[in-house]
Design a protein that fits this description.
The structure holds 2 protein chains of 2 kinds. Chain A is about 40% helix and about 20% strand. Chain A is of the alpha/beta class. In chain A, the strands form 3 sheets. Chain A has an 8-stranded parallel barrel with strand order 5-6-7-8-9-10-11-12, surrounded by 4 helices. Chain B is globular and about 70 Å long. Classes of the chains: A alpha/beta, B alpha/beta. Chains A and B meet through helix 1 of A and helix 8 and helix 15 of B. Chain A: Its cofactor is Mg(2+).
């Protein structure tokens, strides 16, 4: 790469494009565009490139664009990233048409599945909301090469702005500090619903992210809620689970990363997860104590559907409310595993109904058939019905 | 191109030539409006007195056979695509014709493949005048660039039978490559080292051509059983070392898709069949060998198992996925037009419930019915579809020839025709205002299934009613189009095409549905 030149993107990946900007002293723009879809969108790409370069402040430069059918959100991100890497730091983004902003995310919304999407691969982003996952995670951390962090953060920002993710909560996993700060600066103005903070070991880390978010939201004048989900990935993080869960009002859920955690312990991660049982139970307990959701790790073997199902069912029994998915095919299996069975729902509905009847009659004691029902049982039944209703698993009562 | 002819706008609103390759053409008058008259064509009457009494019709080589058949310039020579991209015989036939000195031949393949790219040289040399049959790859480019001397004529498999039967195409010499044959000319496709399954595409040629040559690399003593092609229609038998490359005989594309979006389409189509009540005991369906179609068969199989449903028949192109269905008792029969993988080849050779069919039984529109309209549901692909459900399967969006029609047009007559297509490919939206080349009228296309939703043709109020209460994402086609255009950055630029026709698209009744125009610079 010539000194001063900036480049971003890939020309060997479908739906991506490569951009290299080499600043020059005068001579105006020398814009070279090669595109797989030249015949259909050649004019559009030229127009977009000219506008984006202008917005970025690129006046005199050689600009090479090699496009593999990238969508406008990705083309803009690549142009802007290359411009910044070439030293054009003061420009403003010229974003493509934004997608309609989805409704605000609820703190206690259903979070059975969260689908990981690599943050530097535009191809997988556009369809990520189609698979019915409760959340989509645009990942800036482990799935993005160290060299591509700058480019990925703009791509993720544009994805948040321009892509509809259906009913999925729009999540971003940022990098650990110090990269967390520029990550947040890029993505927070694009209004994600939730930020996953990796490798959290103490409450201060969460507090610093919280403060950064507040500062950025203040700057952009936005008050839409953004939730946090700290990921505990070490022995120390697990020990501090409760404090971490209470570190910010924004924390809506607590989760655990088992690859790093088992590495920290020096143990092998097994199919049934006995070696992490204590840590996971600790997360569940800390979450319950802090009043946030407990969310499990991922099951890495995409082909092993039965293993995934068994993991999910055990995980639900431990008290987790969901887990991560590394492939869309895991989503329906995970939803099944974390959803109450029909019998469970029926029983819970009966209990809730009996409680309501008793209330109406002013009875202090709730009974179902010959059995007395204790208040905690009623409470558990209420929560189960509420979860099942969110998951669309309750046949609405006939009136 | 042999000079400009007149054009008319047909009932589909498409400008079509009224003459092609010296023959008057009927513009598409609308569905069911073209009523054929007269009698079928027939080959000359022959006498057994002129054929060897011992039944041995062998001659030393293909060139000799062509000479004995009286090959002359301007004749029509046919071949078939049973060996797909592994075929050796079609090209050898045309090269032998060149050695004999024949010129201006019309090559009439049931489909052409990239392995036949050297036919471009034969067209340059004047040996082959033009091709009537599917063209893609280098042959498609040659035709699309307007370099072919005559107009390309693209027909469906059923339309090819219809054209031969109705006398629209007269085949002078048919050359049939056979995986097994006997010296009398009986041919079988289901056995032998180059087994390909059915020989159905050659059946019409064997019945109607003036002369028929059988070429085989597996000569067996009389009788060759089963005789998919009857030796009584065959003039000469030629033995060669290899009729084709067995590794390429089966399609290379029979892989289930791994794309999550495409898997989603496949699953939703299967669900649609179940929710609409189409998937029930005794039903039938057809799915091709594309990645989505194969995945669809997998999902449907699971649902059939769960619900204890058994199909009466399924239609191939057969693959291991259909063979599994047969072997597990989930269908009574496979009625197979062509075989796409080795499991299909083995099954058709061994299982009496796996039957070879021909375009006559399956698809011929000018017959007393055909199987295609009896199939309850079919899953097909397309390159483009418009908001009125008209679809294109033969050209890229830029107008270049891409695919043959195959059985696609014929299959549109099923009870529920489903196009399974991604909503965009490489940023290019698949749902458009108007298709580049009309291959199938929207009246016959019932469902367009994309990863972003399923559009049901508003004409199918019965299907819409049956799907009330289904959780499928059923959406108006315009809405899916608008969503895709939003993230693609608006509708694509229109391709630059010229006013010079390079090929015509026949409908199943022999009328002209659309024109393929020479691509611009």
């Amino acid at each position: 790469m010539a000194p001063g030149a900036g480049q971003a993107g890939n020309d060997d990946t479908r739906s991506d494009c490569f951009v290299r900007i080499t600043p020059a002293n005068g001579g105006g723009l020398d814009l070279q565009i090669e595109s797989k879809v030249e015949l259909y969108y050649g004019d559009s790409i030229r127009k977009q490139a000219t506008a984006a370069l202008d917005a970025a402040g690129v006046r005199d430069a050689r600009v090479e664009v090699r496009d593999q059918g990238a969508l406008p959100f990705a083309i803009e991100a690549r142009l802007e990233a290359a411009a910044r890497l070439a030293g054009y730091l003061d420009g403003k983004p010229d974003l493509p048409e934004p997608a309609p902003l989805p409704p605000v995310s609820d703190r206690n919304r259903l979070r059975r599945s969260r689908l990981y999407v690599p943050g530097n691969d535009p191809k997988l982003m556009i369809g990520a909301g189609l698979h019915g996952a409760d959340g989509v995670i645009l990942d800036l951390e482990d799935s993005v090469h160290a060299d591509a962090k700058d480019a990925a953060r703009l791509l993720v920002r544009n994805a948040l702005c321009c892509i509809e993710f259906g009913h999925s909560e729009r999540m971003v996993r940022i990098n650990p500090e110090p990269m967390a700060i520029p990550d947040l600066a890029a993505v927070i103005p694009a209004r994600p619903d939730l930020i996953l903070i990796p490798k959290v070991e103490d409450a201060d880390q969460v507090a610093r992210v919280d403060a950064a978010i507040n500062r950025i939201l203040g700057e952009v004048g936005e008050h839409r809620p953004i939730w946090l989900m700290p990921i505990l990935e070490s022995g120390k993080g697990i020990e501090n689970a409760f404090e971490i869960a209470r570190a910010s009002e924004r924390v809506g859920a607590l989760t655990i990363g088992l690859e790093d955690y088992t590495a920290d312990l020096g143990v092998v991660k097994t199919r049934d997860g006995a070696e992490t049982l204590w840590a996971r139970s600790r997360v569940v307990n800390a979450a319950a104590a802090a009043g946030v959701q407990a969310i499990d790790s991922v099951y890495g073997d995409v082909a092993d559907e039965e293993g995934l199902r068994a993991w999910g069912e055990r995980s639900r029994a431990l008290g987790f409310q969901g887990m991560g998915c590394v492939h869309p095919r895991q989503v329906p299996v995970v939803h099944d595993a974390y959803s109450p069975s029909e019998q469970e729902v029926d029983k819970a509905l009966q209990i809730v109904h009996a409680f309501e009847e008793a209330q109406k009659l002013g009875l202090a004691v709730v009974s179902l058939g010959s059995k007395m029902i204790d208040p905690p049982v009623v409470e558990r039944a209420r929560r189960l019905v509420e979860q099942a209703r969110k998951a669309g698993r309750v046949q609405e009562e006939q009136s | 191109m042999s000079g400009k002819t007149g054009f008319e706008v047909n009932a589909a609103g498409r400008k079509v030539p009224v003459e092609a390759n010296g023959k008057t053409q009927i513009p598409f008058p609308g569905l069911g409006k073209q009523l054929p008259q007269g009698r079928k064509a027939a080959p000359p009457v022959r006498s057994a007195a002129y054929y060897p009494a011992d039944g041995d019709k062998r001659v030393p080589d293909l060139k000799t056979a062509l000479e004995k058949c009286g090959l002359k310039s301007g004749m029509t020579v046919s071949s078939h695509h049973h060996f797909r991209n592994g075929d050796f015989i079609a090209l050898k036939t045309l090269q032998a014709a060149a050695e004999i000195g024949a010129r201006d031949l019309m090559w009439f393949p049931s489909a052409s493949f990239p392995c036949q790219a050297p036919v471009v040289d034969l067209m340059e040399q004047g040996v082959v005048h033009h091709i009537e049959g599917s063209m893609n790859g280098p042959l498609g480019d040659y035709c699309s660039q307007g370099k072919m001397k005559g107009l390309g004529v693209l027909r469906s498999h059923g339309g090819r039978w219809q054209a031969i039967q109705d006398g629209e195409i007269h085949v002078d010499i048919a050359v049939i490559a056979a995986p097994t044959a006997d010296p009398f000319g009986n041919c079988d496709g289901s056995h032998g080292p180059s087994a390909c399954g059915s020989l159905g595409f050659a059946l019409a040629d064997s019945i109607y051509a003036d002369h028929v040559i059988a070429v085989t690399d597996n000569l067996v003593p009389f009788p060759c059983v089963p005789w998919q092609i009857q030796g009584n229609n065959v003039d000469y038998v030629v033995e060669v070392d290899q009729v084709g490359d067995p590794s390429k005989i089966v399609s290379g594309t029979t892989q289930i898709t791994r794309s999550p979006e495409r898997l989603r389409i496949a699953k939703q189509i299967a669900t649609l069949l179940r929710d609409a009540g189409i998937m029930k005991d005794g039903f039938s369906f057809q799915a091709g060998a594309g990645g989505i179609a194969l995945a669809f068969v997998g999902y449907l199989k699971e649902m059939m198992r769960q619900d204890g449903v058994r199909a009466r028949f399924v239609r191939g192109g057969s693959t291991s996925y259909l063979v599994d269905l047969l072997n597990e008792g989930l269908t009574d029969y496979i009625l197979d037009g062509q075989t796409f993988d080795l499991a299909g080849v083995a099954s058709i050779g061994e299982n009496p419930r796996h039957l070879a069919t021909s375009p006559f039984t399956s698809y011929n529109h000018h017959g007393k019915g055909n199987f295609a309209s009896m199939v309850d549901a079919v899953v097909l692909g397309a390159t483009e579809v418009d908001v009125n459900f008209n679809a294109n399967v033969v050209t890229h969006s830029d107008g270049r020839l891409l695919h043959g029609i195959g059985g696609w047009q014929n299959c549109l007559h099923s009870g529920c025709t489903i196009l399974a297509i991604p909503s965009f490919r490489d940023r290019i939206p698949v749902i458009v205002d108007q298709v580049t080349t009309l291959t199938g009228p929207g009246e016959l296309i019932d469902v367009v299934a994309t990863e972003r939703g399923i559009a049901i043709n508003p004409r199918r109020t019965d299907l819409l009613d049956a799907l009330k209460g289904s959780k499928l994402p059923i959406r108006p086609i315009e809405e899916i189009k608008a969503e895709v255009e939003r993230f693609c950055g608006g509708p694509p630029q229109k391709p630059v095409l010229t006013d010079d026709p390079v090929a015509i698209i026949k409908w199943v009744d022999g009328t002209v549905l659309d024109t393929v125009w020479k691509v611009g610079k």
